């Protein structure tokens, strides 16, 4: 997983992306790094002021080019990532293989998870990054990618996820058209339509997650992934004593666009507490006590 950096020649940020970074006094660069013999593209946002900063790995949603980092309808796009960087973080985001000009094929939580697992090595090569302070942020499909990366050994101080994909079988039940999408993306899906979703569903292997603080955000009018998945996940996390904070935004859509300012206030507080300041997570204990 040798990181290969470019100056953005192969992936030039467009004018709108650059304007977003100017507004936040943030530097934006395109990167190309190597994973499994493939050249994977992505972006790095970092504060212009010199210093040593904690980092945030952002996992995008969507599939293939739909929902890519430059896709106009993405729940979290360049403007939001630039805002996070303006708080004093180096933000890195992969396009994943098979999307945004990256080589390879997107298998929706298959070997493309390696593209996330390679990012700490890329961050370690960036002079401004304090590689001991890394947070993880994922939205929609990116929440699934985040959980899979944690399962496979990614080390972070805290996690924040929104638009939750915790049970792919529920996604298929709610949106059966995804069966065709998954079959197109990965031939393995049709070989075992039950095992394939389970392998990508954190609700099926929750015990394999490290017990780091997890912030879960969802909208009650999210028609893309449904709030049921977030509720099931939070109940299971609580049962296993994970340090979790859950916020359901009444009437909000998949991007929680109706409460965007509040969402980013919560996200910033979470990252500052557990990533920047490295505060220890609370001890979860609700055993009965004598009065």
From TrEMBL:
Keywords for the protein's UniProt record, in alphabetical order = Hydrolase
Domain Peptidase S9 prolyl oligopeptidase catalytic: residue ranges: 84-276
Q: Which GO terms describe its biological process?
A: proteolysis
* GO molecular function term, any single one: carboxylic ester hydrolase activity
Q: What Pfam families does this protein's entry cite?
A: Peptidase_S9
PANTHER family given in the database record: DIENELACTONE HYDROLASE DOMAIN-CONTAINING PROTEIN-RELATED (PTHR22946), POLYKETIDE TRANSFERASE AF380 (PTHR22946:SF9)
Query: What is this protein identified as?
Result: Peptidase S9 prolyl oligopeptidase catalytic domain-containing protein
Q: What is the lineage of its organism?
A: Bacteria, Pseudomonadati, Pseudomonadota, Gammaproteobacteria, Alteromonadales
């Amino acid at each position: 997983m040798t990181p290969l950096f470019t100056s953005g020649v192969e992936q030039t940020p467009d004018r709108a992306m650059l304007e977003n970074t100017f507004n936040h006094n943030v530097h934006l660069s395109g990167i190309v790094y190597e994973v499994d013999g493939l050249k994977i593209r992505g972006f790095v946002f970092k504060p212009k002021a010199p210093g040593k900063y904690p980092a945030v790995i952002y996992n995008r949603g969507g599939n293939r080019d739909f929902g890519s980092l430059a896709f106009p309808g993405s729940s979290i796009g360049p403007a939001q990532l630039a805002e996070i960087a303006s708080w004093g973080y180096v933000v890195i985001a992969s396009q994943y293989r098979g999307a945004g000009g990256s080589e390879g094929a997107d298998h929706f939580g298959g070997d493309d998870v390696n593209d996330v697992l390679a990012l700490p090595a890329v961050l370690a090569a960036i002079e401004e990054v304090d590689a001991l302070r890394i947070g993880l942020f994922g939205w929609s499909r990116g929440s699934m990618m985040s959980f899979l990366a944690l399962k496979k050994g990614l080390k972070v101080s805290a996690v924040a996820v929104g638009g939750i994909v915790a049970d792919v079988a529920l996604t298929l039940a709610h949106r059966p058209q995804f069966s065709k999408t998954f079959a197109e993306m990965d031939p393995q899906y049709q070989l075992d339509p039950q095992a394939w979703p389970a392998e990508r569903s954190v609700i099926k292997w929750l015990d394999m997650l490290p017990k780091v603080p997890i912030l879960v955000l969802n909208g009650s009018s999210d028609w893309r992934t449904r709030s049921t998945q977030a509720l099931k996940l939070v109940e299971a996390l609580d049962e296993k004593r994970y340090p979790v904070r859950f916020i359901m935004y009444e009437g909000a859509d998949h991007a929680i666009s109706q409460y965007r300012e509040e969402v980013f206030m919560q996200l910033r507080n979470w990252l500052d507490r557990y990533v920047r300041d490295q505060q220890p997570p609370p001890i979860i204990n609700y055993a009965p006590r004598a009065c």
